[in-house]
Each structure stands twice: as C-alpha cells, then as structure tokens.
Specification:
- With 288 residues, the chain is mostly helical.
- It has one domain: Up-down Bundle (Na+/H+ antiporter like fold).
- Helices cover 84% and strands 0% of the residues.
- The chain has 14 helices and no strands.
- It has helices spanning 2-25, 30-39, 41-66, 70-80, 86-91, 99-128, 136-160, 162-190, 192-197, 200-220, 225-236, 240-250, 253-256, 260-287.
- Helix 3 (41-66) runs antiparallel to helix 4 (70-80) and helix 6 (99-128) packs parallel to helix 11.
- The chain is globular and about 50 Å long.
- The termini are far apart.
- Residues 284-288 have low confidence and may be disordered.
Length: 288
C-alpha cells in the first residue's frame, strides 16, 4: 500500500504541476510578452539577475553565515534554484503588481528554468558540500517536462483557440492546484515529525532568506510602483510545486521536504506585510 501511494505521489506531483503550468500558458499570448521584452530589455536583464543570480547568492551567504541544519541547507538550496512560482501569475493582478511585466518575466523564467534550475542546484550543492542524489540531466528533464513543455503547449493552444483557452484555463488551473495540495499532503504527514522538531533558529534563517529575496527584488525593481512590487514578489516566491517535485524525486524526504511548508507559511505572512506596506506607500504617494 505504501509503495502504491509513493508511486501515485511521484507520478501525480509532476502531472499536477504540468497542469498548472499548462493553464498558465493558456493565459499568455506571445505578442504582448515579446513586445514588452523588446521595449524593456534592460529591465528584463536586471530582473533575471535578481531572481536567478542574487537570490541563490543570498541563499549561499545566509547559509554560510548563519549555519542552519543540513535539512535547511538543502531545502533552501532547492528553493533558491526554483524560480517562477506558479501561483504568482494567477494572483499578482489582485496584489498590486504589473500583470504584463509579470507575464513576460514569468514566462521567461519558466523557459530558462530548464537550464538555470540544474545549474544553480549543482553550483549550490558544490559550494555547500552536500551530495546531490541525481544528475543535472535528470533535473533538467524534470524541469523540461513540468514547466517548459506545458507552458509552450498552452501558448500554442491559445494561439489557435483563444476563446477555448479563456474558458478552460482557470478551471484547469484550479483543479491542478487542488490535486497538487492533495498529493503533497501525504508527504507532509510523513515528514510532520521533522516539521514539529524544527528549531526556532531554522525559522529565523528562513525568514531572513525570504526578507532578503523580497529586498533584492524591491531594490532592483523599476521606479514604477506596480513593477517594483512585481519583481519583489517574483524574487521572494519560489516555485513550491517544482521544489517539492525535485525534493520528492531526487532527495531523501528527511533532508529537504520538511522545509517547504514552514517556508510557505512564513512567506505568506511576510509577503502579506510587505504588500500591505506597498499598498499604503503607493496610496500615500498618489494622494500626495
């Protein structure tokens, strides 16, 4: 029974993530994204540096300085290597961000992930001295199957059937998200003992990592308020589904998976505070 459940999780997690990314692709028309990229090339390059370079470097610096437990080290390394959080594309318009900018950045990160995820994970594993239990090619294969191909397929479907894409995209995304949560639950239950044993210092380290990521995006974001908020959120929110998938398929659960739920909880709390502050600041600036 346990083996059957494990097989269902290992197959279902990637499939649910693929469904989420396909639903996102259904929302993206290539024209506006390409136009935005051409008109704001420097902004996009700066955004790539923030999300793909500075966030992993922040993880490395925080780990080396604060010396958390091995589980936190590997968990943060996986999170730092996993950009383009799926739910950001669905929720950013309601949170005060720029949807066109986010769509362009999010799609670009998803397409680059097939290269950046295995590269960053490999470099961090070498710098931090933990042994990855899977080769870079296997991680690239996982990223390609769960992100690259579904997003491209969604864009292609939208190009030919835009009305159908608008109808099925939101429903498919919600169903895939629900399946992802359901399948992740047994993993969380199995690692609950480790979760409850997590010390206060580990929570402090994760909170510092989240704050640092938000600060990186905020500092490198453009002056326009919505775009600055967008980059901060994209830098701070890591791809939880991808991180769980990589952790479940490629690492022992005791090393990494118990880190992700505390991270999500902390991110929700800290990002909510950040967004409220941004909303108040932006409102005050508009009044003045």
């Amino acid at each position: 029974m346990k083996e059957i459940l494990l097989d269902i999780i290992k197959i279902g997690l990637p499939l649910s993530l693929m469904g989420i990314m396909f639903a996102q692709g259904l929302k993206l028309a290539p024209g506006p994204q390409l136009a935005f990229f051409r008109e704001h090339t420097l902004l996009m390059l700066r955004s790539f540096v923030a999300v793909l370079v500075l966030v992993p470097l922040a993880a490395l610096a925080i780990i080396l300085l604060l010396k958390p437990s091995p589980a936190i080290v590997i968990g943060l390394a996986i999170l730092a290597a996993s950009p383009a959080a799926p739910f950001q594309l669905l929720n950013i318009a309601k949170k005060g961000g720029s949807l066109v900018y986010l769509g362009t950045l999010h799609l670009s990160l998803a397409l680059l992930a097939i290269i950046t995820v295995p590269a960053v994970l490999y470099l961090l594993s070498q710098a931090l001295g933990f042994q990855a239990e899977v080769g870079a090619f296997q991680v690239a294969k996982t990223v390609g199957q769960t992100i690259f191909l579904p997003v491209i397929l969604g864009i292609v479907v939208r190009s030919f059937f835009p009305k159908a894409a608008d109808k099925i995209g939101p429903a498919l995304g919600k169903v895939a998200e629900m399946v992802l949560y359901v399948l992740a639950l047994p993993i969380l239950v199995k690692t609950s003992e480790l979760l409850l044993k997590m010390d206060l210092w580990s929570y402090v380290v994760m909170a510092i990592f989240i704050i640092a990521n938000l600060a990186i995006g905020h500092a490198l974001g453009p002056r326009e308020a919505q775009a600055r908020t967008t980059l901060a959120m994209e830098s701070g929110a890591r791809n939880f589904g991808l991180a769980v998938t990589i952790g479940a398929l490629n690492f022992s659960q005791g090393k990494a998976l118990s880190v992700f739920i505390p991270y999500i909880i902390l991110f929700v709390v800290i990002s909510t505070i950040y967004l409220k502050w941004r909303k108040n600041t932006t409102t005050h600036a508009e009044v003045v």
